[in-house]
Amino acid sequence: MYIGASRQKRVALVVFLAPAVFSLILFYLVPIFSSLVLSLLEYDPLKPTSEISFVGLRNFIEYFKYKDMRNQYLHVLYYLVLYIPLVLATSMTEAMLLNRSFTAKAAYKVMLYLPVVSSWVAVALIWRWLLHGEYGIINIMLRAVGIHGPSWLNNKQWAMPAVVLAAVWKDTGYYTLIVLAALKQIDINYYEAARIDGASPFKQFRFITLPLVSPTMFLLLVINVIAGFQVFESIYVMTEGGPAGATRVPVEQIYRNAFTYYKMGYASAIAWVLGAVIIVATIFQFQLEKLWVRYES
Amino acid sequence: MKRTIRIGVAILLVLTMVLPVFSAGKAESGKTTIRYANFSAGESNAETLRKMVDLFEAKNPTIKVELESMGYGDNYWTSLITRIAGGDPPDAFELNMEQFLAFTLRKSNRALDDLFAKTGTDVNLFGEGLLDAVSFDGKIMAIPQSFSTVVLVYNKELFDRANTPYPRADWTWDDALQAALKISALGKDIWGTFNPIQFWEFYKVVQQNGGGLMTPDGKELTINTPQNVASLEYMLDRMWKYHVMPTVEEQAGRPEADMFVDGKLGMWLNGVWAFTDLKDRVKFPWGIEMEPGNLTKATHFFGNVGCISTTTKYPEETFKFLTFMATDPDVVQLRLDAQWELPTVGDPTVMQRYLADTPPDNKEAVLNSLQYAVKPPALLQFSELTNIVNTKIEQARDGQLTAKQALDQAQAEAREKIRL
Question: Do A47 and B107 touch (CB under 8 A)?
Answer without folding.
Answer: yes
